[in-house]
Amino acid sequence: MAERLFRQAADGRHQARSAGSAPGPAVHPQVLEALAEVGIDAADHRPRRLDQEATDWADVVAATCDDACPVIPGKRYVSWELPDPKALPLEQVREIRAQIEQLVRQLVDELDREAAAA
Predict the structure, then answer these.
(1) What is the pTM of this model?
(2) Is it the case that residue 108 has pLDDT exceeding 90?
(3) How far apart are CA 78 and CA 80, in angstroms?
(4) Helix or strand or coil: residue 78?
(5) Within 13 Å, how many C-alpha atoms sit on residue 14's CB side?
(6) For residue range 34-56, what is the model confidence (pLDDT) as tens digits?
(7) Helix (H, G, I), strand (E, B) or coil at 77
């Protein structure tokens, strides 16, 4: 969810890629539905494992998990402790989506300010 919500909020000014320490085989249906409700089609998303290529590419690592997420030395790191939506009903996934939307807006605003100051 975070990647797609970030892309929507950044509107091309910044980029995002999603990766996880233990990704499942597909996006959870209730996540797809929650994103569709805010105009995001994520049906083409394929979960991928967090690897060296992904960490090398990133300027900022936004972790949306607890202790399962590795800290990447030398990278700017923000921790968003959120529950895994995989076994949650749509109503709770909507709540997580709302939290992520708020966190993403804050990060995009911060990145915009940094870009303007550079």
Answers:
(1) 0.89
(2) yes
(3) 7
(4) strand
(5) 25
(6) 999 999 999 999 999 888 888 88
(7) strand
Q: Which of 99, 97, 101, 98 is nearest to 28 (CA)?
A: 97
Q: SS3 letters for 7-28?
A: HHHHCCCCCCCCCECCCCCCCC
Q: Which long-range contacts (CB under 8 A, 24 or more apart) does 50-55 make?
A: 50/19, 50/20, 50/21, 51/19, 54/17, 54/19
Query: In this predicted model, what pLDDT tens digit does every residue of 53-105 receive, in sequence order?
Result: 888 888 888 888 666 666 777 888 888 888 889 889 999 999 999 999 999 99
Q: Which two tokens stand for residue 61?
A: 């690592």
Residue with tokens 């805010």, as numbered in its chain: 38
CB 45 within 8 A of CB 27: yes
Strands (E), 38-111: 60-63, 76-79
Q: How open is the CA angle 56-60-64, to the nearest 5 degrees? A: 110
12: how many CB neighbours lie within 10 A of its CB?
6
Q: Say if CB 63 and CB 47 are below 8 A apart.
A: no
